[in-house]
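Propose amino acids for all 269 sites.
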């Protein structure tokens, strides 16, 4: 009897050991590296006078009026990978040099990977209006999607809740919630054409156009200038046009259509 109880106790202990091992954070090591890097940046900020100071005065004078820089844009991406785990791993390998503030899985789980005030490497080379360094001025949100599939409702619901929080927290303008393909039309097409931009705009996240019934752009309507007014870099006019159509018409076909011109006219006004 005692032997049976001992065996049962040993099995129970083994069960709890396995359970504890399974519940261990698989990113424990990279989290340590994350904390170490944050401490290093904090140390640099605490240096007085500031690092690389160009001051030529005999003593340092620090202003009392300052605060954290705040993000002014949100850039939405699709991961172009096959699972959330794959993306999390990509963002925790130093050699990839890519990251994002948030990753939202298909089931709606939100991973907050980086403080909103720190600079993630998500936007790359691109521009929107006069802003040519979106990494420094934006929050990056990655949606688990390989680029060829629709977005799960649970994922979109989590995104809407997150955008609501970020917009209020950082007073981000409605029109400054855009896609990676908008800021880098020659390189990127994310989030793909299936993304529900209108649903977001109806909730106050991103610009949309007014009813185009009866709208006729004037004969002198300059589509290239209109694209610039919306925010696109038009150095590659074809890429800018395709990005515009993908975002506002969910259209991936080539060329202009009368409806596309009407929508662009409305947006540019």
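Proposal:
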């Amino acid at each position: 009897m005692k032997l049976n109880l001992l065996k049962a106790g040993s099995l129970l202990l083994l069960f709890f050991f396995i359970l504890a091992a399974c519940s261990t954070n698989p990113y424990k090591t990279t989290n340590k590296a994350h904390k170490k890097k944050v401490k290093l940046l904090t140390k640099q900020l605490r240096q007085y006078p500031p690092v690389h100071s160009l001051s030529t005065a005999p003593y340092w004078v620090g202003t009392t009026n300052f605060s954290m820089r705040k993000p002014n844009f949100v850039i939405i991406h699709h991961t172009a990978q096959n699972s959330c785990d794959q993306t999390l791993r990509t963002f925790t390998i130093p050699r990839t040099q890519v990251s994002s503030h948030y990753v939202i899985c298909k089931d709606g789980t939100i991973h907050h990977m980086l403080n909103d005030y720190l600079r993630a490497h998500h936007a790359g080379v691109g521009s929107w209006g006069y802003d040519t360094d979106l990494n420094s001025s934006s929050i990056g949100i990655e949606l688990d999607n390989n680029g060829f599939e629709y977005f799960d409702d649970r994922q979109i619901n989590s995104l809407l809740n997150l955008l609501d929080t970020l917009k209020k927290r950082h007073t981000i303008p409605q029109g400054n919630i855009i896609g990676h393909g908008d800021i880098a039309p020659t390189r990127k097409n994310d989030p793909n054409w299936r993304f529900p931009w209108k649903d977001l705009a109806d909730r106050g996240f991103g610009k949309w156009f007014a009813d185009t019934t009866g709208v006729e752009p004037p004969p002198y309507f300059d589509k290239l200038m209109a694209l610039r007014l919306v925010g696109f870099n038009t150095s590659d006019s074809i890429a800018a046009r395709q990005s515009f159509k993908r975002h506002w018409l969910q259209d991936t076909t080539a060329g202009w259509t009368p409806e596309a011109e009407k929508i662009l006219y409305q947006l540019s006004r």
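The radius of gyration is 24 Å. The chain has a mean pLDDT of 92.
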